[in-house]
Structures are given as structure tokens and as C-alpha cells.
């Protein structure tokens, strides 16, 4: 039995039947990390020792006959922009390469409270800025399906770790598609919950009004279990919604009869690889055959989403990243002149090219002379984009689309063309601008590379996303295919 | 008429009286060891997010209402971006676009003229940390240290319109503002602890001109008196510059208290703070009911109290003004009045002895030990003639220092007097009648026998006679 291929809910059965121990499981995952991570390079920091201690505690609980949660003992990888008390948290940046937070993000505390073990911290594009993981200051994570290709980004390490069996589940963050796109590229389930559904306390901010933490998993059931653990109001996060706790597994029903699904035609035309589009059409037909009503619809302001996103996200980023000045923590450039010189050299040397590009863009957008016609206008367009979704959700329970216009591209292909890289976010960014939940589920392969189907739901209606994804999964077998490593 | 007119606007930062900081649960207590009142939020650690302190919003609204402002029920926070080591996030969370309170006013009296000073806005913001330099300034010091205890402490900034015309008006404005903030419980308003700070924007222009001149912003004034002096100096300086045919430089200047001058600090080019809406703190939505509830918590303010002291207790307007300039003084006055009816006498003692001692020692009323009940008892002792007015001042100084009851002090220190000569004469006659032997001894030249007789009189008067007076009265009687 290859433990690293199992899902969390399958492992849980084995644990409570005492067929395996949490310690064995964690050792197996560590063996897998040792075996594959030289090729995948998902992990920045491995925390085997701590994970084994946590696993032994779970084993003790099980042997004492105590009830444990479905995630107890399950090794989970954490994107390295989510703070972990006493464990280095770099955000994929040189400027934080020596930074160990004195506190854990709320999501980490919740996972630990559920008994999950922390397998380690996984790679990302620096400060979550990128779609390929090539912007990490340390190394580029590889796609387990083809190690010459990118895993997607920015949560590429989180997606690759789960796809490679180097973690059972993982956490990522999604500002413009950073969970859904790598999930699509790596053939796993990835979900960006509704803005406010998951606490952002402890998530190193890129663009605060768009950032949301979410799970990666090998199937929809595990995704629901992860949501059960991480969702809920957090008094430490002012943007956290005051929602009641719910059991997301209650939505896992093999039944989409009567659901009305809309397919925004804007997401199905320009720039979408025909093979990817064909797989999405096949998925539409599949869901139709299972009893859903599927129609084309429209999100008329889609053309404005990309500029709107890049103005808002970069404006917020330029401010959010101002704190990395070398004064209190992180890497400081030594031997500088006065304090302004120290700020400038520290930031010039500490940030990578893409981060600097985005800080410059955002700084420009916020300049007093530009504020009204860039930032403020972007905020106004954002409300129009949101309104598109509100209108669509009056007629449809869910929207369907590709996640990314293409499959995983070769490492290096788009690094010299940032605009081309930005365009690959076209199907995902509106969802962040509107604050809706979005999920990526495997819907086939093109040339041996996975393709994801995106489901977009009403705010706080993660349930319908899970139900539809679960039904699709029960009637397909894409999630049962593993990369040959 | 003066050839020039000064145009002065004040920006006053006031620390709100909350137990915890604006966006985290850290204590705001003053004077603790550096960096002991900090957490991931007020240190701006990566990933931290703050949550708004509701008490700060209440206090800010109360300040706005007491300053006759309109309250914006849909208000939010913005970011002001700039780099400085005391600013842990690289931006300050403040209110730029939609402050909690706007368009108020404050009535002052200065140089014998009543004046209404309009207030542009009251907005909430967080304080940065505090820099300590090994020597000199941040540009010259070998090392600088940052204490983030103050980082995130809630402030309101109260911005006046540029309608003040002199240092005296500015001082009167600050005194009135301080009293209102003290009355409403918004702030401790202690300048020496930094809970009230004031910057002044000053320009001059030819009288009658409607065009504003280039302004200087003056910082580092540590008392109301310093604000007045700095403004007076700066106005004169700018007039001299203009008289010499030069133009005033737009700049930030610092007040040097010891030399009594302002000095150029940095040129004030228009800094672009790239202000934009704070997304991590949810907007504040207030209801009209909430505002009315806040309004209901505003106590009687200094002007109303002053009028009441004049109308109900017949105090001269000047006295009422002095007494109501501070909440603690006004409360002390009225508490004394509950036990002693002569308002003017109380006022004389508060304005005379109490303020004299407080000023001489640089103390706050709360730091002295004298109580309203104590003052009332003292005034009663004087009225009864137990002690003289002059002796009363000595007793008051002891009460101020030690806080005991005046009767006790009078007794211990033998300060009392029986001023009723007839009554004393009766007692002396009795003592002489009961003690024939010592009387005979004294009359036969035994000088020390007088001591015994004085003691007997003192005993009979329970110590309330003046021993010197008793001595001379005895000698007078026995000489007959």
C-alpha cells in the first residue's frame, strides 16, 4: 500500500481502525518527500521532527480510545506566506529569508487544533506575485506531471506537493487565481473560498482586499474536510465574516439534478487553447447528462478585469510591502549610509524583479496625481465586475469555466513577457475582484498534462460548489490518476 | 491698524483615553519599559491584521460632538504611506477622505474679545513609535533605537481652520480645547506625557489681503505658553522677512524653548503620501441613534458650567472662567460648595492659595492632598475665629501637603486662638480663683509659677487659646 497516494479520508479510516499509525503515515510522507522533492522542489522548509511529535500525540489519543478529527495525524504542507510560530516563513523572498515569526496564522492554529501535522513550508512566487513559481527567490518548483514545466503559481509548491504525494493536503493563498491555476496545472482540487470565509490573520498580505487562504486536496471530500477545519469567524481579522460553523461534508452528494449552471462566454473565446476548451465543453456535457441545466451566459465587464485587478492588487501591494525596510526583521543591507540609504539598499537588494515591478506599478497608481483616474476608477470598475456576477447568479446556481487558458507551460517560457504571464490569469481574477468562491477540479488531460474546470459560486455558497464538484468527481476518474515520478 | 495679519491654524493630536491600542489589545499605559507593550499587530509583523477598538470610535465621536461637529455615520480608515523607522508598517492608518467628524467650532475669549474658531475636522489615527537617538538626530546619530510601545495608540487629530490671528488666541483655543476634552473624558490631555501635542501652521499677509502667504509649520512646542511664544516669534520673523523684501520659505521649523526662537528643520515640499482606502479594517457604520446616544453622554461643558456658576452662585465671570477651565478644579469648587455656602470665598481660596501652590510645585490638582471637605472645614474655622485668615493659609499649606483635617492640624500645631477676650478673661479668672498657691508664688516673685497657670488655662480651653495671649492676660490680671 502506498500511503502517499491516499486521501485524508481514506487514511482516517485506516488510522481509527489502527491499521496504520499516524507516525507511520508521517514517516511515509517524509520518505516520499525525500524521494521526490529533489526533482519537484516543493519544500522550502521541512518540519519532520515537529510533525512526528504531533503524529505520536495523535497515536496516543487513538490508542486511548479518544475521538479524533478526520484531519488528525494528516501531514499538511503550508504555503510559505502563512506564518508558523517558530518555523521560518519566507514568503519566497530574500528579504524574509531569515524570518521566523513569533506567532502562527489562525488557519495554522486551527489545523493544529484539528490534530493535523505540519509537513513543512512550501514554495511560492515571491510574496505570491506570479503564476509559475519562477519568481521564488530560492528555486522554481517543478510540475510533477512534467518536471520541465511550471506547477503554476503562486501556490505552486502547495499544488505540486499534493500532486506528488509529498503532502496529503496543503494550504495556499489566492489573490487572482493562485490556488486554482496551480491546482489546474497539477491535477488536484484547489479552492478559493469566499472572501471573508477564512481568516487572513497570519497570511502575509499581497493585496488585502483580494487575498484568501484555501485548501489543496486530492479529492473533493478532502477539500470539504479542510474547509471544515479552516473556515469560520476570526475576531483577529476585521474582514473575517461572522458566519456560523458548518459541516461542508454535508454537501457531498452525487446529485446535480436541477442545478442551473452558466458558462460565461467571455471565458471560452479569445486566447483559450482549443484542447482546453474542448475538455471544458466535455465537462459541461457531463454535468448536463447528470441532470444539471447548462447554458451560456455573459459577464460583460470581463475585458476590464485584468487592468482593474492589476491596478488594485498592485496599489495594495505597494503599501503592504512597505514594512520590509530592514528595521525590525528580515534581511538588512549592512554598511549603508543614513537611514534612507538603508531603506533603499535593503529593498533594492531584498526584492526580486517582479515584486519591484508590481511595487512600481502600484506606487504609480496611487500617486496623488493619478489616484482618481487609476485607483479610484479601478474601484468603480470593480463594483461593475461584481455586479456582473450578481446578475449572473440571479439566473444560475454556479458558473463554469476553464481555470487557465492553457496547460502548464515550460519553465522559462513566459519569464521575459510579464504581460503574457498576466493574461494567463484571465479566467480567475474576476472571482477575486467579486469576492466569490471558486474551485478547480481536474477535468481531463491534454498531452499528458492535467486541465482544471473552474466552478464559481455565490458568496458563502461553497456548499453548491462542493456538491457539483463531488458529483463530477464521482462520475469521472481524473482524480484517480497520479503523475509517474 | 497693523500692516500685517497673521494667519494661524492649529493641528492638535490628542491621545484617546482607551485602555488598549487602536487595532490590538496592547496596553496604552504611559511610561513602561521600551517594547514591552507590543504584539504582532502594533509591530506590523508580516501577516498581522488589526481590529478596530470601538471605544476609540466612541471617544472620537464624543470629541466631535463636544466641538459642535457633524458626525459622518459612514466613515472609514485610509492609509498614509511614508517611510520612517518609527512607522512599523510603512504606512499610518488614519482618516483622510471621510473623517469621523467635520465642520465644528470652538468659542474662545482672548485679549478681551470673544471669537468663534471653526474646526475643519476631527479624525482618528494611530500613533507611530518613538525614536531615541544615541546622539543628535536620526541623520547624525551613530545609533538610533525605536520604542514601539506608543505604536498604535489611538489619537484624534483636531484641525482648526486658519482663523487664529495671534499667539494669545492660539493659547486661548488650546486651553478651551483641553478643558472640553477633559470634561468629556476623551483624553487625559497631559502635554508632558505627550497625550496632547500641537503643531502650528503660520503665515502672514498684508492686512486686508485675501491671499495666503507661504506658511511655516512649527513643531516641538511643549506647553501652551510655548505655543504662544513660538507663534509670536514666528509672526515677527516672517514680517521681518517680508519687510526686507524677501519671501517666506515654505518649511517645517522647530521651536527652541531655551533660545526662544524657531529654527528651520526641513523644507516642506508637497509630500505625496499616496493615501488610499485601508482594506484590512472594515468601514465603520454608525447609526443616527448611536450618534444621539453619544451626544447624550456629553456632560455640561466649560462654557455652560461657567454661566451656571455666575448665574446660580453669583461668581464673578472671571472667577468662573478660571475655575471651569479645568474639570478637576470645577469639580473641586462645586464639591466644596456643597459643604460651605460662600462661593466667592471658596473661589478666592482656589484661585489664591490652591492654584498658587499647584503652580509653584508644578503639580496637578489630583496630586495635592487637599480635599473639598477639608477646605470647607478650614473656611468654617476661620469664620468662627478659631484661627485667623493668615493662620488659615499656613494650615492650608499643611493640608495641601499632608491632607489631614484642618482641626487636627490646628490642634497639633497649637495654631488656634480664642479670640473672644471676655470668654478668655472668664476662664482666666476661674483659674486664678482655683489656684491661690501658684498665684501667691508668682506674686511673690516666683516667675516660673506663671507657666503652671498658663497650662491650666490651656487645659480649660482645650488648647484653643493662644498661649502667648493667655500669658500676657494672666500677667496683666496678677499685676493688679
Task: Describe this protein with a few key phrases.
heterodimer, A: about 475 residues, alpha/beta, Amidase signature (AS) enzymes, 11-stranded mixed β-sheet, 11 strands, about 40% helix, B: about 475 residues, alpha+beta, Arc Repressor Mutant, subunit A, 9-stranded mixed β-sheet, 3-stranded antiparallel β-sheet, 16 strands, about 20% strand
Report on this model:
The complex is a heterodimer of chains A (485) and B (480). With 485 residues, chain A is α/β, with parallel strands linked by helices. Chain A has a single domain, classed as Alpha-Beta Complex (Amidase signature (AS) enzymes). Chain A is 38% helix and 13% strand. Chain A contains 15 helices and 11 strands. An 11-stranded mixed β-sheet of chain A has the order 1-3-2-4-6-5-10-11-9-7-8, sandwiched between helices. The longest helix of chain A is centred in the C-terminal third of the chain and has 24 residues. By secondary structure, chain B is α+β, with helices and mostly antiparallel strands. Chain B folds into 3 domains: 288 residues, no CATH class; 114 residues, no CATH class; 59 residues, Arc Repressor Mutant, subunit A. Chain B is 40% helix and 20% strand. Chain B has 15 helices and 16 strands. A 9-stranded mixed β-sheet of chain B has the order 2-6-7-10-1-11-12-13-14. In chain B, α12 packs across α15. The longest helix of chain B is centred in the middle third of the chain and has 20 residues. The radius of gyration of chain B is 30 Å and the shape is elongated. Chains A and B meet through α9 and α10 of A and β15 of B.
Amino acid at each position: 500500500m502506498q500511503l502517499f497516494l491516499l486521501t485524508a479520508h481514506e487514511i482516517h479510516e485506516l488510522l481509527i481502525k489502527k491499521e496504520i499509525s499516524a507516525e507511520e503515515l508521517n514517516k511515509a510522507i517524509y520518505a516520499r518527500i525525500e524521494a521526490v522533492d529533489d526533482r519537484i522542489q516543493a519544500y522550502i522548509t521541512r518540519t519532520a521532527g515537529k510533525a512526528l511529535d504531533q503524529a505520536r500525540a495523535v497515536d496516543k489519543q487513538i490508542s486511548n480510545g479518544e475521538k479524533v478529527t478526520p484531519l488528525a495525524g494528516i501531514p499538511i504542507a503550508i504555503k510559505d506566506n502563512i506564518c508558523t510560530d517558530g518555523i521560518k516563513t519566507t514568503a519566497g523572498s530574500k528579504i524574509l529569508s531569515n524570518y521566523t515569526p513569533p506567532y502562527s496564522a489562525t488557519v495554522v492554529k486551527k489545523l493544529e487544533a484539528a490534530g493535523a501535522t505540519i509537513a513543512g513550508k512550501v514554495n511560492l512566487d515571491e510574496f505570491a506575485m506570479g503564476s509559475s513559481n519562477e519568481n521564488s527567490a530560492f528555486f522554481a518548483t517543478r510540475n510533477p506531471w512534467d518536471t520541465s514545466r511550471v506547477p503554476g503559481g503562486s501556490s505552486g509548491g502547495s499544488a505540486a506537493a499534493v500532486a506528488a504525494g509529498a503532502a496529503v493536503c496543503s494550504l495556499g493563498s489566492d489573490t487572482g487565481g493562485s490556488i486554482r491555476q496551480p491546482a489546474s496545472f497539477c491535477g488536484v482540487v484547489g479552492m478559493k473560498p469566499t472572501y471573508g470565509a477564512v481568516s487572513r490573520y497570519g497570511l502575509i498580505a499581497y493585496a488585502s482586499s483580494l487575498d484568501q487562504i484555501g485548501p489543496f486536496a486530492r479529492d473533493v471530500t478532502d477539500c470539504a474536510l479542510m474547509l471544515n477545519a479552516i473556515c469560520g469567524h476570526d475576531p483577529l481579522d476585521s474582514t473575517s465574516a461572522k458566519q456560523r460553523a458548518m459541516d461542508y461534508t454535508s454537501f457531498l452528494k452525487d446529485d446535480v439534478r436541477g442545478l442551473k449552471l452558466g458558462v460565461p462566454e467571455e471565458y471560452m473565446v479569445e486566447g483559450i487553447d482549443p484542447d482546453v476548451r474542448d475538455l471544458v465543453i466535455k465537462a459541461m456535457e457531463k454535468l448536463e447528462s447528470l441532470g444539471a441545466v447548462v447554458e451560456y451566459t455573459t459577464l460583460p465587464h470581463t475585458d476590464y478585469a485584468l487592468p482593474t485587478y492589476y491596478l488594485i492588487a498592485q496599489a495594495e501591494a505597494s503599501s503592504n510591502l512597505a514594512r520590509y525596510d530592514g528595521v525590525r526583521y528580515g534581511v538588512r543591507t549592512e554598511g549603508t549610509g543614513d537611514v534612507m540609504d538603508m531603506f533603499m539598499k535593503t529593498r533594492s537588494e531584498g526584492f526580486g524583479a517582479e515584486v519591484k515591478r508590481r511595487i512600481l506599478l502600484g506606487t504609480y497608481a496611487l500617486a496623488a496625481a493619478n489616484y482618481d483616474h487609476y485607483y479610484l476608477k479601478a474601484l468603480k470598475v470593480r463594483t461593475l465586475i461584481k455586479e456582473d456576477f450578481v446578475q449572473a447568479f440571479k439566473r444560475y446556481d454556479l458558473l463554469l469555466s476553464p481555470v487557465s487558458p492553457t496547460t502548464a507551460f515550460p519553465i522559462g517560457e513566459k519569464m521575459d513577457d510579464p504581460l503574457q504571464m498576466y493574461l494567463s490569469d484571465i479566467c480567475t481574477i474576476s472571482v477575486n475582484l467579486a469576492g466569490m468562491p471558486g474551485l478547480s477540479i481536474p477535468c481531463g488531460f491534454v498531452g499528458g498534462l492535467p486541465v482544471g474546470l473552474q466552478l464559481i459560486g455565490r458568496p458563502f455558497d461553497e456548499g453548491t460548489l462542493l456538491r457539483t464538484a463531488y458529483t463530477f468527481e464521482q462520475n469521472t476518474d481524473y482524480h484517480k490518476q497520479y503523475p509517474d515520478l | 491698524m497693523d500692516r500685517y495679519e497673521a494667519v494661524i491654524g492649529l493641528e492638535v493630536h490628542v491621545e484617546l483615553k482607551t485602555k488598549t491600542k487602536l487595532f490590538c489589545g496592547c496596553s496604552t499605559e504611559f511610561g513602561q519599559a521600551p517594547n514591552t507593550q507590543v504584539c504582532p499587530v502594533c509591530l506590523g509583523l508580516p501577516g498581522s491584521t488589526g481590529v478596530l477598538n470601538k471605544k476609540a470610535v466612541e471617544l472620537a465621536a464624543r470629541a466631535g460632538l463636544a466641538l459642535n461637529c457633524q458626525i459622518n455615520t459612514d466613515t472609514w480608515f485610509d492609509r498614509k504611506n511614508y517611510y520612517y523607522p518609527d512607522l512599523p508598517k510603512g504606512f499610518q492608518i488614519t482618516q483622510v477622505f471621510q473623517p469621523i467628524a467635520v465642520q465644528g467650532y470652538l468659542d474662545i475669549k482672548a485679549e478681551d474679545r470673544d471669537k468663534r474658531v471653526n474646526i475643519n475636522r476631527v479624525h482618528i489615527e494611530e500613533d507611530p513609535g518613538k525614536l531615541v537617538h544615541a546622539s543628535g538626530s536620526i541623520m547624525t546619530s551613530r545609533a538610533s533605537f525605536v520604542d514601539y510601545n506608543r505604536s498604535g495608540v489611538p489619537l484624534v487629530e483636531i484641525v482648526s481652520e486658519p482663523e487664529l490671528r495671534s499667539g494669545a488666541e492660539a493659547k486661548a483655543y488650546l486651553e478651551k480645547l483641553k478643558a472640553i476634552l477633559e470634561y468629556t473624558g476623551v483624553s487625559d490631555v497631559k502635554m508632558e506625557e505627550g497625550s496632547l501635542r500641537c503643531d502650528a501652521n503660520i503665515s502672514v499677509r498684508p492686512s486686508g489681503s485675501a491671499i495666503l502667504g507661504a506658511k511655516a509649520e512649527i513643531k516641538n512646542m511643549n506647553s501652551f505658553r510655548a505655543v504662544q511664544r513660538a507663534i509670536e516669534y514666528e509672526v515677527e520673523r516672517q514680517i521681518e522677512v517680508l519687510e526686507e523684501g524677501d519671501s517666506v520659505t515654505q518649511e517645517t521649523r522647530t521651536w527652541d524653548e531655551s533660545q526662544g526662537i524657531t529654527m528651520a528643520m526641513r523644507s516642506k515640499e508637497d509630500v505625496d503620501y499616496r493615501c488610499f482606502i485601508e482594506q484590512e479594517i472594515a468601514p465603520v457604520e454608525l447609526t443616527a441613534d448611536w450618534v444621539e446616544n453619544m451626544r447624550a453622554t456629553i456632560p455640561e461643558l466649560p462654557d455652560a458650567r461657567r454661566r451656571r456658576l455666575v448665574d446660580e452662585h453669583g461668581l464673578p465671570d472671571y472667577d468662573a472662567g478660571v475655575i471651569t477651565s479645568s474639570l478637576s478644579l470645577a469639580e473641586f469648587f462645586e464639591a466644596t460648595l456643597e459643604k460651605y455656602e460662600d462661593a466667592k470665598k471658596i473661589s478666592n481660596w482656589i484661585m489664591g492659595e490652591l492654584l498658587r501652590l499647584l503652580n509653584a510645585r508644578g503639580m496637578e490638582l489630583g496630586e495635592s492632598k487637599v480635599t473639598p471637605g477639608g477646605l470647607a472645614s478650614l473656611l468654617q474655622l476661620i469664620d468662627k475665629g478659631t484661627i485667623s485668615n493668615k493662620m488659615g493659609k499656613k494650615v492650608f499649606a499643611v493640608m495641601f501637603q499632608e491632607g489631614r483635617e484642618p482641626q487636627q492640624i490646628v490642634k497639633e500645631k497649637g495654631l488656634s486662638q480664642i479670640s473672644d477676650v471676655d470668654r478668655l478673661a472668664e476662664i482666666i479668672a476661674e483659674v486664678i480663683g482655683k489656684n491661690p498657691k501658684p498665684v501667691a508664688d508668682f506674686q511673690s516673685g516666683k516667675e516660673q509659677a506663671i507657666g503652671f497657670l498658663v497650662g491650666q488655662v490651656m487645659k480649660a480651653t482645650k488648647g484653643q487659646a493662644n498661649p502667648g495671649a493667655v500669658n500676657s492676660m494672666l500677667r496683666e490680671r496678677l499685676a493688679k
